[in-house]
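S2.1 Query sequence (Lipoprotein)
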Amino acid sequence: MRIRATVAAVTGALALSAFAVPAAQATGSDSHNPVDTLKALHAATSGKSAFTGATPADTGTPYALDAKFGNVKVNKGFPIIAGTSGKVTVPVTFTVTHGAGVDVTADDTELDLVIYRGAYADPANILVGDDWPTCTNTSATVASCKGTIDILPGEELYNTDATTWKALGYVIDWNDVDPFSDDDIDWTKVGYAEGDALATTKLQRFSKLTVNAAPEPVKKGKTITVTGKLSRANWDTGLYGGVSTQSVKLQFRKKGSSTYSTVKTIKSSTTGGLKTTVKASVDGYYRFVFAGNPTTPAVNAAGDFVDVK
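Output structure tokens follow.
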């Protein structure tokens, strides 16, 4: 498993990605600040690659590695949905097309795919995987790779993170150079390739929806009051809070049927509360349905049965 550790910029404008550190060589802590990580990768270069613009103190700059990312899929193209606790593991798949002399599976080659939000040169947050992706050479010039993005919502997310994220991939070919050597490093022997905005993915706050229809049983023609609540993960507090002023449908399914029909549409209160009334007609199930919005996934309440006498 990768140890998540922040690595300082290496020399002058040459900054090594902190997520490009082998577990055996990671230093200090078992956690990292992912924002500092990508900032380090692009430090002091005004949005250019961190491997450009070397200072006189640098002993050369890495050469452009012949490697290109493609076919990137994050969570199979679906939004990522996270609650307030636990760990969310998201699959990522991609290919790397490379020169015949490049081996992305070699021990001295580091490769990863991460997601970030914000600006390329100044990201607001970054999410990485616990383990390095694994790649299989499908031909002399193409590797098929798969990995994960592992998210700890209680430690890594804020409500502002419920937005669109971009995927970034990189490959470093050390060519037997020791990046942690105390001696001067000949950077001209190190190859580097990076791909930005390889794909996008949405991160959403897990939602919940409840329903209760009463009284039960009820006489035919009498009024039924249907209540419930729409809530979602609050990554700032670690709790679930109501979602205000959202359109929610009340639906009904007759006993013996498998199909729900919309009865009416109401809006949630400022605290996420839902309340409406209907006339009792036949036995059946009532539920609330929320279609979702850009930060909150769609959710259906489980049907609540009402026996009509």
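The CA atoms of residues 260 and 279 lie 17 Å apart. The two ends are 61 Å apart (CA to CA).
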